[in-house]
UniProtKB/TrEMBL annotation:
GO annotation (BP), single: small GTPase-mediated signal transduction
InterPro entries (UniProt xref): C2_DOCK-type_domain (IPR027007), C2_domain_sf (IPR035892), DOCK (IPR026791)
Transmembrane stretches, start-end: none
Family designation: Belongs to the DOCK family.
GO MF terms, alphabetically ordered: guanyl-nucleotide exchange factor activity
Xref: Pfam families: DOCK-C2
Domain C2 DOCK-type: 1-131
Protein name listed in UniProt: Guanine nucleotide exchange factor SPIKE 1-like isoform X2
Length: 131
């Protein structure tokens, strides 16, 4: 999974991710492995993000979810994008509990707008968990 911090849309990524190495410069993205062997996905790494003091309604975290088929005989299997999820930070700035995000298949322009969200093609959770 890749996590990015954006303002308005995915093309406006912000240097906000602290790298794993001390002293390195901020990056536009961070990645982590996700364990999906159970009903609830679990991230393997903690990701630190440098957020602005004032968050606008357009500030959000964009999660890009990949699948890597480890059963293939390829030396280096290629990741395939499964979907995307967006977490608006102005409404979830004080996260003290778990948040469940819908996963949409395609990253379309203005994906944060309510009128666009209604028309997005979402993955079905029941179908994903039975595969």
């Amino acid at each position: 999974m890749i996590v990015t911090f954006a303002n308005t849309h995915w093309r406006s990524l912000i240097l906000a991710m602290y790298p794993g190495d001390d002293g390195a410069v901020l990056q536009k993205w961070a990645h982590t492995q996700v364990y999906v062997g159970s009903r609830m996905a679990c991230c393997h790494d903690e990701i630190k993000i440098f957020l602005p003091a004032i968050l606008s309604p357009q500030h959000h975290l964009l999660f890009t979810l990949f699948h890597v088929d480890l059963q293939t005989k390829q030396e280096a299997p290629k990741p395939v994008i499964v979907g995307y999820a967006a977490l608006p930070l102005s409404t979830h700035a004080q996260l003290h509990s778990e948040v469940s995000l819908p996963i949409f298949r395609e990253l379309v322009p203005h994906y944060l707008q309510d009128s666009i969200k209604e028309g997005l093609d979402y993955l079905e959770v029941e179908k994903m968990s039975s595969d």
